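Hi P.,

Sorry for the delay on this. The queue was packed all week, but I finally got your sequence through. Input first:
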Amino acid sequence: MSRRPVVAGVLLALVGPALTACSGLPGLGGDGYCDAVRSHQRELGEAVARGGQASLLSVLPALEDLRSKAPADVGDEWQQVVGRLEALDSALRAAGVDPAGYDAAKPPTGLTAAQRDAITAAATELARPETADALAAVQQQVRDVCQTSLTG
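Then the structure:
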């Protein structure tokens, strides 16, 4: 069985609901956090609509921006989510692999076992329950604090 569809499905199951979650309240929305949520809504919504790990990785800069502006009460959760995506992105880049075309069952020619293992490990860490829990916390916080959805 190919891990690519499994990884893409897990990513969408984890991130899709969190991205479909700011009139920020003073002191709770972080410095520009809710404004940043609004500014990235369309981009994040389009990525969720396209689906797949390549789409999620394409919005990594937006997610990194949100992490940098997130209030302290969800900083660890944002780090969990974005850190796991960064690790997958890093493993794919180090291997010179296009996320859209990667299939663990048919790895690209020239991919070493170590590179394949690094990609698999990063995807496995991203799919861990801790990441799903962190996404749920981020989703709830965006709704509560910003009174909006990450995808508009």
